Amino acid sequence: MEEHNKILDKYVGLKIRERRKALGMTQAELAEVLALSHQQIQRYESGENTISMASVLRIAQALNVKPDCFYENAPLSKTADEDTSNGIIVKTTNRPIRVLLVEDVTTDELLFRKAAEKSSVASDVRTIQNPENVVDFLLKHKAKNDEETPDLVVLDINMPQMNGLELLKKIKENMTLKYLPVIMLTNSVRSKDMLESYANHANGFVQKNSDLLEFFEDINLILQYWSRAIVLPSAA
Question: How far apart are the first and last CA of the chain?
Answer without folding.
Answer: 21
